[in-house]
Amino acid sequence: MSQTRDGRDDRGEQGGRGGPDGGAGAAGHVVVVGGGISGLAAALDLAAGGARVTLLEASERLGGKLHADEIAGVPVDLGAESILARRPEATALAREVGLGDDLQPPAVGGAALWTRGRLRPMPQGQVMGVPGDLAPLASSGVLSAAGLARLPLDHVLPRTEIGEDTAVGGYVAARLGREVVDRLVEPLLGGVYAGNSYEISLRAAVPQLYAAAHEGRSLIEAVRGLQRKAAAAGAGGPVFNGIRGGIGRLPLAVAAACRAAGVRIETGTPVRELRRTGPHGWRIGLDGRALAADAVVIAVPARAAADLLAAEAPAAAAELGAVEYASMALVTMAFRRRDVLALPLSSGFLVPPVDGRTIKAATFSSRKWGWLDSAGGDTFVLRTSVGRHGDTADLAWDDTDLVRLSREDLGEAVGLRAAPIAARVTRWTGGLPQYAVGHVDRVRRLREQVGKLPGVALCGAVYDGVGIPACVGSGRRAAAEVLATLVPGAPDGAGE
């Protein structure tokens, strides 16, 4: 196998071992299982902390749900397309790996809702669809007259007890009526989790509302209080950022920084087994070989993590095995720019599931991201999403039919009848963990169990948030936990 000038072989793996100077790590050998953004962030911090690090990724590609590619010669994201800017972890990491100058907020905002027969403006003054300011909601036409008339009952109804946890949809419906849930909360929360708000944990998914619900009776007043606190704290600037060339560039840049720090990265390398070899040692079983390590970071989805932990932490494995995932598909289409001149001047629209459409959202990508608008020339890119937890029938269609069904909905919603010049369907099977009621306690229990294993840490979207900043923070937390268990200067488990 040939090698490049920087010592990587032609699969992109690090040819040498040890730290940047080629020597053994000062704090032992750590294996990171999983090459998504959480595992990459963990590996980077572990190397900076003096560990000798090997990162193993089962697929042939790094980045997980962050995937930059192209359509019709135009660079696009085929997975996550934005970073929450008001959490610092992901933007800080982007700057750390040299992408700071490429961070860009959306060029346009103003997303809409396609509901009750037409596009309607997304009401302002709400938190995850829960209204605090009723005037924009009333003028939007999102709710019927009966739905609007139901809202004032929130001020006179007795307090809704939620105990240790409750479903977002059930709690909001009890306070404000089902229309608010079905036409506002569902599409917004579904855009984050691809899930059902009547099953998703209030405590895990919208913790600020969970806390506010314990403080007072009225949910509307709770939202107003959160908005006042945000205003007093001076919350400003963009809510989201993109990256020129695609969010999928971020894991590649982190991987490059990892290699520069001495991390050995192997793709196409599934981990089959994790077993203890002594008080502080681990054997990582691969196909036809094994690695020895002093510590392990597990940065894979819940089911895969459960398989790895089944032998050494069966209780934790059982907790992980109970986590359900949602599958979805992204339909990315390229059009001639002259064929989309009549599209609304917005970033796209969300679709409440109650309206019975195939698509759950549409993003006018070339309008939303200035870098994509510039790169596209005469090509305009948009994408739709299909599927959510418990509603997967549409995903049974083949790719050609998903494109057709998306086009039919776009034709009805915004009058787009032209045929695309190119289309790609990206299926994310088991892509998003579902934070069911009791999720916070489940994570606490499994971490207690894993905490009994010396030198093992967990990270990823299943634990503390599905967004990119949360995943980066999770990876860095896992790295700190592992580094605290290693003895500086100790011999590492370098053997295979």
Features:
496 residues; alpha+beta; FAD/NAD(P)-binding domain; Polyamine Oxidase, Chain A, domain 2; 3 domains; seven-stranded mixed beta sheet; five-stranded parallel beta sheet; globular; disordered N terminus
Describe this protein's structure:
The chain is of the alpha+beta class. It has three domains: 29-65 and 246-322 and 435-484, FAD/NAD(P)-binding domain (3-Layer(bba) Sandwich); 123-233, protoporphyrinogen ix oxidase, domain 3 (Orthogonal Bundle), CATH 1.10.3110.10; 325-433, Protoporphyrinogen oxidase, mitochondrial, domain 2 (Polyamine Oxidase, Chain A, domain 2, Alpha-Beta Complex). Helices cover 35% and strands 21% of the residues. It contains 18 helices and 22 strands. Strands 8-7-18-19-20-17-21 form a seven-stranded mixed β-sheet. Strands 12-2-1-16-22 form a five-stranded parallel β-sheet, with helices on one face. A hairpin with a 2-residue loop joins strand 7 and strand 8 (118-121). Helix 1 runs parallel beside helix 10 (249-260) and helix 12 runs antiparallel to helix 16. The model is unreliable at 1-26 (pLDDT under 50). Its main location: cytoplasm. Residues 15-24 have a biased composition (Gly residues). Residues 1-14 have a biased composition (Basic and acidic residues). Residues 37-483 form the Amine oxidase domain.
